[in-house]
Amino acid sequence: MKKGVKMSFISVLLGTCLTLTGCKVEYKDIAKALDEGDMKTVMAASDDGYAYVSVGVYRILEYPKVGEKRDEKKKDEERIDQVTEGIFSIRDHSFYGVTSQSKSTYTMHYSGGHISDVTDKKEKNVYTTNISYSNKNIQLSTPNVDASLVTFFFTDLKGLAKVTPEDTRRGMDEPVLVTFKFNKQQFDKIVKPKLHLDYDEFISAELEMKLNSPNKPNEVVDMSLDIKYKKKVQNQLLSFEDSYAVGFAHKQDNDKGGKKEYLDYKNKFNEGRESCPST
């Protein structure tokens, strides 16, 4: 199935009816659907209820090297990437697909407030495995690997409809963008319970949804979530930045073979679990 998905690490989402010059766009249906976990409305699923979904996550940790003072001209960072893709069944809110994790460390150099160079870069692939999501539980074919960044937070954003969005839409012929900036209380109630995330200092959280066009308010192209916070690690208060990007396919793409891909992923997941040695 060809994936017509545009991924972007930005920030998202809906709520009320916002006025565009010469056009009035309703967001209430999408807001209500995300609030209630109604994926039939959110996803452009096939007629038999299957939809392609991709979730890209990266976490950046800024840390000082042992014995060195913090230097504003360079920053040492560690980045974890988690990429999940597969097919979601809107009938029972289940998902089968593949997820992979990679890690990298590097030093960012700055000049005049801008990045001038990246040095000491090291990368490694941690794992790639089959994944299942059912009854809000995540299972991987490969045992004993870190799955803390695997999330389907967008399936349950209860309380979102009560948040007033900011109007950040583009022009008439460009995708409609609607952004929510959460305060600490809103973030803790609506988003944080769906993530494996703890913090000592909340900085910011933004959620953004991109719609296909003003004339198709229910066609969700993608959504993204950006979070900045600080957390103590070995008695040091370190800066973290988490970004989540969720991509969907158009209905015509899902109609081409969504169910077949779902069953293929399901079979691979079950085969992977059977091949793993019991502990």
Distance between the termini: 37 Å
Judging by the overall fold, what is the CATH architecture?
Answer: Clam
User: From the helix content, strand content and strand pairing, which structural class follows?
Assistant: alpha+beta
Q: Give the CATH class.
A: Mainly Beta
Question: What order do the helices and strands follow?
Answer: EEHHEEEEEEEHEEEHH
**In CATH terms, what is the fold-level topology?**
outer membrane lipoprotein receptor (LolB), chain A
Write down how many β-strands occur, each being a DSSP E stretch of 2 or more residues.
12
Q: Helical amount among residues, as a percent range? A: 10-25%
Profile the largest sheet.
10 strands, antiparallel
Number of domains: 1
Poorly predicted ranges:
2-24
Query: What percentage of amino acids are in beta strands?
Result: over 45%
Outline: globular
- Annotation field: number of helices: 5
Rg calc: 20 Å
Mean pLDDT: 82
How are the strands of the biggest sheet laid out side by side?
A: 7-6-5-4-3-12-11-10-9-8
